[in-house]
Design brief:
two-stranded antiparallel sheet; single chain
Length: 407
């Protein structure tokens, strides 16, 4: 590992990048780690969901609430990252599970996909949702947030399916991506943007009326991709609608989180790293001024060895630090990108996955319940599929919003 870090730092000094696909051939690469973690779980499966987290080094087991959970965001990222690594054989079973979920649901027939499914092989019909046996209450328990549908998560699944379609020319993946995006347009349009989605248990769920800058980046990206493929006006309209929220959220050198449920803009003091990076990474014709948000993130969210999730700077958020490494690469700053990638090597575990946080616990200032206000969403030092996928994307120079490799 020391040699790999030295080589990476040497490349940073010279400003050079490995040739496309070369990273996946290196034993110490993030591609190799992702393959090592995922391949045993996809072997022989036609469709499979991958659990988002593994137990930490000091844990016997994961908490019940995430022990069987495969978040669709993490699985969508894994599909894209595996394709970036040239590993289509492992990407397809995960994509097939997402594809089936897009067509089959246990309660709804309107085209939505859930925020999470139960990890493991997926058979015919509606995939199972995560859950656990609550011994004290003597009931099968499920999580309201996992059971809900986040607009951004739907868009990420569509991006993964479009990436698979690009790699395979399989029309089913394109059809399912269109199906999901059409659901976003029909169910979550909110004036100048798209609202948050739905929350709660079947069969009655609460509509989330706030708008997220991050979600609207995702919708813009998938709508723009579909517009390129189909030329259909509804996707041009959706991209423009999402773009209006992004323009509204920009404040000269930074982006706000989005809006409150009543339509007012989010508080200016509430910061998040991804919101500063994704808009100009995803929008091909973004104003040059949007890239000032990278400098804002460096000034207000950077910590020793990487970036925090929010402005309290209580530790390194591994996933976000990988996002920043890709952002610097897109921005043409090889030195900063390589510096962050070298730092992330310390977060890679024996399984191949990277820990979600470098500290034991990392705050976000956000709530697990998208209808709540209690800041109880934390990241822990546990191996995380999503963080690993972002590290792969930075390492391989793959932009997940466009399906293009940065040269």
């Amino acid at each position: 590992m020391k040699l790999a870090i030295a080589m990476t730092l040497g490349a940073a000094i010279m400003g050079a990048w490995p040739a496309a696909g070369e990273e996946a051939q290196t034993a110490s690469s993030f591609c190799a780690g992702l393959n090592r973690a995922v391949t045993p779980l996809t072997r022989g499966a036609d469709a499979v969901f991958i659990r988002s987290y593994e137990a930490a080094a000091d844990e016997a087991n994961l908490p019940a609430g995430i022990a069987t959970t495969a978040f669709v965001y993490d699985n969508a990222l894994a599909v894209i990252a595996l394709i970036a690594c040239g590993n289509l054989s492992d990407a397809k079973p995960i994509g097939n599970a997402l594809s089936r979920a897009a067509r089959h649901d246990r309660s709804f027939d309107d085209g939505r996909i859930r925020n999470a499914y139960r990890a493991g092989p997926v058979g015919a019909g509606a995939p199972n949702l995560p859950g656990w046996w609550d011994e004290s209450a003597k009931i099968w328990a499920e999580d309201a947030a996992q059971e809900g549908t986040s607009t951004g998560n739907v868009a990420w699944v569509a991006l993964a399916l479009l990436t698979l379609h690009q790699a395979t020319s399989d029309a089913q993946y394109l059809s399912d991506a269109k199906h999901l995006t059409d659901w976003i347009i029909a169910a979550t349009a909110c004036g100048d943007g798209f609202c948050g989605g739905f929350h709660g248990y079947d069969p009655q769920q609460v509509r989330l009326t706030w708008m997220s800058t991050e979600h609207n980046v995702d919708v813009h990206a998938v709508a723009n991709w579909l517009l390129r493929l189909t030329g259909e006006q509804k996707y041009a309209d959706a991209a423009a609608q999402a773009r209006r929220l992004l323009d509204r959220a920009f404040r000269g050198d930074r982006f706000l989180l989005g809006t409150k449920p009543d339509g007012r803009m989010a508080d200016e003091g509430v910061l998040a790293l991804d919101v500063q990076l994704w808009p100009w990474m995803a929008v091909s014709d973004a104003p040059a001024a949007w890239r000032r948000a990278l400098g804002f993130a460096q000034a207000h969210l950077a910590v020793d060895g990487g970036f925090d999730f929010n402005g309290d700077r209580d530790g390194v958020w591994v996933e976000g630090t990988a996002q920043a490494a890709l952002a610097y690469r897109i921005n043409g700053d090889a030195t900063q990108s390589h510096r962050l990638l070298a730092s992330l090597k310390t977060d890679q575990t024996r399984s191949g996955l990277l820990n979600a946080s470098r500290a034991a616990r990392l705050t976000t200032g956000l709530s697990i319940d998208p209808t709540g206000t209690v800041p109880d969403l934390f990241y822990y030092r546990r191996p995380h599929l999503g963080a690993t996928a972002w590290a792969v994307l930075a390492e391989t120079g793959w932009n997940p919003f466009t399906g293009e490799r940065i040269r």
